[in-house]
Model the fold of this input.
Amino acid sequence: MPPAYVKPYVKRQKNDATDAEAICEAVGRANMRFVPTKTPEQQSGLVLHRTRHLFIRQQTSVINAIRAHCAEFGIVAPVGRCGVEELLCGIANEKRVPELARACLLALGAQLRRIKEQILEFDRMITAWHRGCETSRRLDEIPGVGPALATAVVASIADPRAFRSGRDFSAWIGLVPKQSSSGGKPKLGSISKQGDRYLRGLFTAGALAVIRYAKIRGTGHRPWLTALLARRPIKVAAIALANKIARMVWAMMARGERYREPVALVAY
Done:
């Protein structure tokens, strides 16, 4: 059971006896939700994704450190990965940087290269796992879903039928509006951002990729998305599209189906 669902049953002070009583009270509820047990293969996939995500954060941290240290000596490069490479290439012959600082920056550059090599190795491992998983290959057919998102979903969802519908799955990720209704008057706000932040970020990134591709292909490529972009900002449309992609992912996993291209897109 999620700890957040047990917390309301804890009476006053928190101790082992009170926690055990709350767990016994919560487990007997008819509408209580439980977390299905994952297989060792799924746990391994989650470890792979979390380790890769950790290395990506470390890569960003090292890049920011290199830029900040160089800026202290008045050396600034363009934004992006190429800019960092320019900084590292010019450090060895830069007279404005003292010898001690140069040694530290070269060490950071070597660390950055090792991190990048490890991230590429993780990407190859994810691709290999994706090719060996039939469900992941089916999910990859959905526009906006790549090997990273497909394998992350397969590793995270032990039983897709644990969700009653695609909306429940999308709500679990945190892509549905947050409700603050009272007195019979519904009031919807921004998305709840509850659930798995990593999955939510991958779904949003995939939706943004679909939006960029739709803009290149023209307005006739995706009529629903084109109409949405005409009346909503890009990021709002991306969240709505991510919600839609999440529902399609759940439907394909729960029913064992393949992706079917809409008739309007096939004709186009």
Residues 158-174+196-268 form one domain. Residues 163 and 169 are 6 Å apart (CA to CA).
